[in-house]
Amino acid sequence: MIRRLSLLLSVILSMSHAMAVDTGNMVTPRFRSLQVTVDGNELAPPVITLNSDDKVTIAFDELAEDRSYLRYSLVHCDASWQPSGLVESEYLDGFNQADVEDYSFSRSTTVHYVHYSVTLPNQHMTMKFSGNYMMRVYSEDDPDVNLLQARFSVSESKVRINGEASSRTDTGSDNGNQQLSFTVDASGVDVKNMLSDLKVVVSRNGRTDDVVMLESPQRINGRIAYYEHLRNLIFPGGNEYRRFENTSVDFPTMGVESIDYEYPYYHVTLFRDAPRVGEQYRYDSTQYGRFKVREYNSDDSDVEADYMITHFILDMPELYDYDIYIDGDMTCRRFSPESMMRYDAESNSYRGALLLKQGAYNYQYLAVPKGGKRGVTSVIEGDCHPTVNEYLISVYYREPGARYDRLLGSTVIYSGY
């Protein structure tokens, strides 16, 4: 028990000292289970349409017995998720400070927490501009320190994006890669220069470490931009995400080897994982790294699901040139001390522990070269060309003389179908 608790404590403490200031999804150690959903859909990218009935909800937990007096505000960001530098009154109707008013206390759980949620737009603030937004949450006593950050986007839905992801790439076929090809029809927008004024951002499976930005298309024909035969649209296929469910404290569920209670936490040990490089591809229906909060016997899992220390074991020799991380929405897609696996020479395996709320989870292991910032799947998960990946394509436009990037439209393309 001491070894398990010391491992979790060490990664949480190191996380609090190493926290960097940026605009990515982020939670400080006492906050957990950050989810950004659109109209209750937990399995869709966080993009809403400007001046529509769409709603985006940011939900999270605070590990505490009593509520904190939290506030939130919005920052408009450019296509690269850096602050646009706009005055708040330019991009918002209303006041850019509001209290987090929607909260509930956990019930019948071993770990006490407060569940919060914010839905936008609301009576306090409405987004006037399209583009990227970062919501920051902070204490009313210390407004300069972000306790939590969450990303979402607001689209004008004025362009049509059509395309496909194929295993037939410009580097050959059946080589573990996938290539995107797509068109952007901007007939409904007065884009001054189709070759230079559009920015297209491609991300896959919610990852933030391997995002591709395209400054110009391969060619144009009238009001249609073609993005074809571009080497930076060739992606490693990766593999289907691994899955587990820790929905019960009474019996093991999917992917769980054992459950035991060691005060003050339940401990869930997953079945041991192994590298999949070289294995035959196996299709599995996954959610591209997302998670769904669920306690199998509850009608209100948001406040009745418990928190458990979940133990990951990856059987493989030590890699001296890479660090290994658990990737998924449950880690906010961060290569942090908390999500980093640590090698145990005695068992010849990598081990990690995360304090997670009961639910259904997707994850994968990414190998990050020492000193690098981009994870690769080829080292542990393997790259398979039939893998089903979710590619989010977002089209931005900055008008001549403008000070912000409009999001003209976005769409999702799936590979493997």
TrEMBL record:
First and last residue of the signal peptide: 1-20
Type 9 secretion system plug protein N-terminal domain segment(s): 32-155
Biological source species: Muribaculum gordoncarteri
Superkingdom of origin organism: Bacteria
Xref: InterPro entries: T9SS_Plug_N (IPR031345)
Protein name, per record: DUF5103 domain-containing protein
Alphabetical keyword list: Signal
One matching Pfam family: T9SS_plug_1st
